[in-house]
Amino acid sequence: PEAQYTRAELLAAFPSLADALAAAAAERERQQQEAAERRAEADRLRAELSSSAAGTKAEVQRKYGEVTLLNVCADVLGTGEGGRNNALNWAAFRAGQMVGGGFLEEGRARAELAAVGQRVGLEGHEIERTISNGMEAGKADPVDPSKVAQFVGMKKPGGNLQQAAARLGQAPDD
Prior knowledge:
By secondary structure, this protein is mainly α. It contains 8 helices and no strands. The protein has helices at 7-13, 15-51, 57-77, 84-100, 106-119, 124-139, 148-151, 159-170.
C-alpha cells in the first residue's frame, strides 16, 4: 500500500518546505497588494479624466495610456502560476495598442512590463520575447482614439467621459 502523509506531517519532516511555502505565500500577498495599488492609481486617473474640463490633447492621451498600463500590469501581478506568460503577452499587446495610437511611450511601457514580468517570476529571455511579440502585435492594431474611453474601461456613455474622449480630437496639442 502507498503511504499517505498529511500536510502537517510533511511540513514537520521538512522544515525548509514550510519556510519556502510561507515565503511564497508572503510574496503572492505582496503581488496582490501591488496590483491593488496600481488599480487604485488607475481609478484615480480615470476620475481625473471624467471630471476634468481642462487638459491638452497630450495630457489626456498620456492619462489614458497610463490608465491602460497600470491596469494591464495589475492584471499580470494578479495572475497565478500557469498563466503569467499569457497575461504578460496580453498586457504587452494592450500596451502596444496604446503605443501605436500615440497614447503611451514605448520605452516606458516595455520597462514597466519587464519589471512586472520579473516580479512575478518569469525568466529574462522569456520576458523580453513575450513583451516584444505582444507589443509588435498591438502596435499593428492601434487603439482607435474615438473608442479610447471604452478601451480603458470607461464605458459609461455621455457626460464628462465623452467630453474627455472628445478632447482627444479637439484639444490643442499643448
